[in-house]
Amino acid sequence: MTKPVLNAALAGTLLLLASTAQAHAPTDIAGGFNSGFLHPLFGWDHVAAMVAVGLWGAFLGRPAIWLLPVVFPLVMAVGGALGVAGIALPGVEIGIAASALVLGLMVLLAARPPLPVAAVLVGVFAIFHGHAHGTELPHAASPLAYSVGFVLSTGLLHLTGIAFGLLTHLRFGNTLVRAGGAVIAVAGAWFLYQAL
Amino acid sequence: MNTRLIAARWCLPALLALLPQLALAHSPIEGIGRFYGGLLHPVLVLPHALALLTFALLVGQCGVSAMRRAYPPFLLALAVGLTLAGFDMTFGLPSERLLLSSALLCGLLVVLQWKLPLLAFTVLGAILGAVVGLDSGVEAGLSRQETFAALLGCWLGATIGLIVIAGVVELARRPWQKVAIRIVASWVCASTLLVLALALR
């Protein structure tokens, strides 16, 4: 093989190695699921509020501890549907930040209001969180995969909070969980300051 | 022979070795084959998977009597729907919306733990089987054998999925297991509600 032929063969081979440029997120079902799953996880205000819901459930006891993860996604979906429909909700970011502050305080104070009061409080905040996710939905690669991803991610954050909240059964668990609530409340205050 | 030429001679086979990729046959999952592609179709197509999942949760939650009423019409309607889809007769149904509406309805019934009359399982099973079947058509240009393999795989996949999930749910008797089933149903409801809102806006 002569040098020019070899050079041409090398150049041709290198051209064949080129693959599709992917400057943006994947546009298939997996891409939609990934972006939906990561959306709540990369927003600290969402994470704080979702975990706080689970922690608070531990203080509220049964049936609230198991009722909240069932009711929250459904109410959140209603908020999401408002966002998808383009119905503006005033102060979404403030509502989300306030949710972390208020729910964190509830955990810190180990508040035990009647179940309907707790459910309404959590439900109102769920609408704000859902609205924020819902406005992102029309831009998702696969809206169904996106919504499955973010609902699953939100549910797992609740379960994380519930699992952490179950520490209240241990000797120093109560203090530990209330300290977790304090951290969330401080973070919530910071989010609220930024939102305002 | 200079050293650059020798190096290039070694580089060329190395680069060529990087070129081969997976062998791709004709299938929804490349290389898996028609039968297995059909078998996984109900799991991989999200509206089908969610509709089947919530229906299985509902049937399993209501027990053996619901299974007896739901399975025969579902299996028969699924077979009829797949056969019609095989002949490219889909009647222009808005399948995705129907499947998501079915998922939402069944999911809400599971969350609320409503006891439906047994006739409702027959009707729901027949409708869901027909819609899943009609929406599972194969692409044009396949041989008769490939089409049959894909449709048979799809029928088996949906059947196995329904029976296994409903069976597992029926065996769940402890309180936390029942709560877990309702949590899964609520998650599916939330996902489908959002996409239906997007479809209807």
Automatic annotation (TrEMBL), chain A:
<keyword id="KW-0812">Transmembrane</keyword>
<feature type="transmembrane region" description="Helical">
    <location>
        <begin position="66"/>
        <end position="88"/>
    </location>
</feature>
<protein>
    <submittedName>
        <fullName>HupE/UreJ family protein</fullName>
    </submittedName>
</protein>
<keyword id="KW-1133">Transmembrane helix</keyword>
<dbReference type="Pfam" id="PF04955">
    <property type="entry name" value="HupE_UreJ"/>
</dbReference>
<keyword id="KW-0732">Signal</keyword>
<feature type="transmembrane region" description="Helical">
    <location>
        <begin position="94"/>
        <end position="110"/>
    </location>
</feature>
<feature type="signal peptide">
    <location>
        <begin position="1"/>
        <end position="23"/>
    </location>
</feature>
<dbReference type="InterPro" id="IPR007038">
    <property type="entry name" value="HupE_UreJ"/>
</dbReference>
<feature type="transmembrane region" description="Helical">
    <location>
        <begin position="175"/>
        <end position="193"/>
    </location>
</feature>
<feature type="transmembrane region" description="Helical">
    <location>
        <begin position="144"/>
        <end position="168"/>
    </location>
</feature>
<feature type="transmembrane region" description="Helical">
    <location>
        <begin position="115"/>
        <end position="132"/>
    </location>
</feature>
<feature type="transmembrane region" description="Helical">
    <location>
        <begin position="39"/>
        <end position="59"/>
    </location>
</feature>
<keyword id="KW-0472">Membrane</keyword>
From TrEMBL, chain B:
<keyword id="KW-1133">Transmembrane helix</keyword>
<feature type="transmembrane region" description="Helical">
    <location>
        <begin position="35"/>
        <end position="59"/>
    </location>
</feature>
<dbReference type="Pfam" id="PF04955">
    <property type="entry name" value="HupE_UreJ"/>
</dbReference>
<keyword id="KW-0732">Signal</keyword>
<feature type="signal peptide">
    <location>
        <begin position="1"/>
        <end position="25"/>
    </location>
</feature>
<feature type="transmembrane region" description="Helical">
    <location>
        <begin position="148"/>
        <end position="172"/>
    </location>
</feature>
<protein>
    <recommendedName>
        <fullName>HupE/UreJ family protein</fullName>
    </recommendedName>
</protein>
<dbReference type="InterPro" id="IPR007038">
    <property type="entry name" value="HupE_UreJ"/>
</dbReference>
<keyword id="KW-0472">Membrane</keyword>
<keyword id="KW-0812">Transmembrane</keyword>
<feature type="transmembrane region" description="Helical">
    <location>
        <begin position="179"/>
        <end position="200"/>
    </location>
</feature>
<feature type="transmembrane region" description="Helical">
    <location>
        <begin position="121"/>
        <end position="142"/>
    </location>
</feature>
<feature type="transmembrane region" description="Helical">
    <location>
        <begin position="71"/>
        <end position="91"/>
    </location>
</feature>
